[in-house]
TrEMBL record:
<protein>
    <recommendedName>
        <fullName>GH16 domain-containing protein</fullName>
    </recommendedName>
</protein>
<dbReference type="GO" id="GO:0004553">
    <property type="term" value="F:hydrolase activity, hydrolyzing O-glycosyl compounds"/>
</dbReference>
<dbReference type="InterPro" id="IPR013320">
    <property type="entry name" value="ConA-like_dom_sf"/>
</dbReference>
<feature type="domain" description="GH16">
    <location>
        <begin position="25"/>
        <end position="338"/>
    </location>
</feature>
<dbReference type="InterPro" id="IPR000757">
    <property type="entry name" value="Beta-glucanase-like"/>
</dbReference>
<dbReference type="GO" id="GO:0005975">
    <property type="term" value="P:carbohydrate metabolic process"/>
</dbReference>
<dbReference type="InterPro" id="IPR006311">
    <property type="entry name" value="TAT_signal"/>
</dbReference>
């Protein structure tokens, strides 16, 4: 950690958090932070030491966090990973050409082609701080807490073996990305939370000279969380609740900020998935073709986003190598957990 990268006080913020958790508006039928602390916690890391992190990028089993980068053979540099006063500092020392990252699971070149901890359903939380004053002008990314289907992360070694869309041509993939928090490059009073339904072959569309990519990306349009005046250099808790579809009851995700849930941060789905095209999908492929689809009530639930219930997610913390992000803790409750 550089001398000017002093993380916020974890001890003070932790006490204040425990005194106020669950005190804000929570919609009926959805969890609050208070409920999460009373539920079954299945994964928790408050970074009392770096022992839970595979800092040396050995890819060995037994760690909570791995620096190996998804879809690459490189890893986050050790100097961009540090733990002090029970706060993880990720990034800040540069020296990398892409995202600085720690993930709960990564791809490996032996069966089952993934290592780490993955999740299905549940309540996902992280308490994070950062200071825009520490963002270098050349930064190409900002602090984020998100997830990807491990079935897709393993693509590096198995192609679309785990994500092949049944009934489609070989190589036609279908997978989910669930973003809990992505920040902007300036200190505005909002952040982004998105569920992406990705599909298609990894290819250049016909008649295009673009680089190859997955052809279709359908995302919820209600993905901007307005939080009002806030000091991002203080710790804040970002949460997401994923309830898989249960019979005729649609599946559901909802996002929370410091325990507060808003009426516009909901997305619903209802399978079976069937065949493409999905509701909201672009009529023509792109690299990718970005479109939005926002079923924010149970009555609007459709096949789009239902692939989430068929996959398991790996969590990841990312930032620009030169832009430090401070993480107090990460917690998962009421989730089906698998250690690979």
């Amino acid at each position: 950690m550089n001398a000017d990268q002093t993380p916020p006080s974890r001890r003070t913020s932790r006490r204040r958090f425990l005194q106020t958790a669950g005190a804000g508006l929570v919609l009926a039928g959805t969890p609050s932070l208070a409920r999460a602390t009373e539920s079954q916690v299945v994964f928790f890391d408050d970074f009392t030491s770096a022992a839970t992190i595979d800092v040396g990028a050995t890819d060995a089993p037994g760690y909570n966090w791995y620096p190996r980068k998804w879809f690459r053979t490189t890893a986050t540099r050790p100097e961009n990973i540090s733990v002090s006063d029970s706060v993880l500092t990720l990034g800040g020392n540069g020296g990398e050409s892409d995202l600085t990252r720690l993930s709960t699971a990564i791809a490996v070149d032996t069966s089952p082609y993934a290592r780490g901890t993955v999740f299905h359903g549940g309540y996902f939380e992280a308490r994070i701080a950062f200071d825009h004053a520490e963002r270098p002008p050349t930064a190409g990314a900002n602090p984020a807490f998100w997830s990807m289907a491990i079935e897709h992360v393993a693509h590096q070694y198995v192609g679309t073996f785990y994500t092949q869309w049944p009934g489609q041509a070989a190589g036609y993939s279908h997978y989910i990305e669930l973003d809990f928090m992505e920040h902007f490059s300036d200190p505005r009073q909002s952040y982004v939370c998105t569920v992406h339904d990705w599909s298609g072959p990894y290819a250049t569309p016909p008649g295009s000279d673009d680089d190859p990519f997955w052809w279709y990306d359908i995302a919820n349009g209600n993905n901007i969380v307005q939080v009002g005046p806030v000091d991002w250099s203080e710790f804040h808790t970002y949460s997401c609740y994923w309830a898989p579809q249960n019979g005729s009851t649609p599946g559901h995700v909802q996002w929370f900020f410091d325990g507060l849930a808003g009426p516009t941060t909901n997305v619903y789905w209802a399978g079976p998935i069937g065949a493409p095209p999905l509701p909201g999908q672009a009529p023509e492929p792109g690299t990718p073709a970005h479109t939005s689809f926002t079923p924010d009530t149970p009555a609007e639930a459709d096949r789009t986003f239902a692939i989430l219930d068929q996959q398991r997610i790996a969590l990841t913390l990312t930032t620009d190598p030169g832009f430090p992000m401070y993480v107090d803790w990460v917690r998962v409750s009421d989730s089906t957990v698998e250690v690979l």
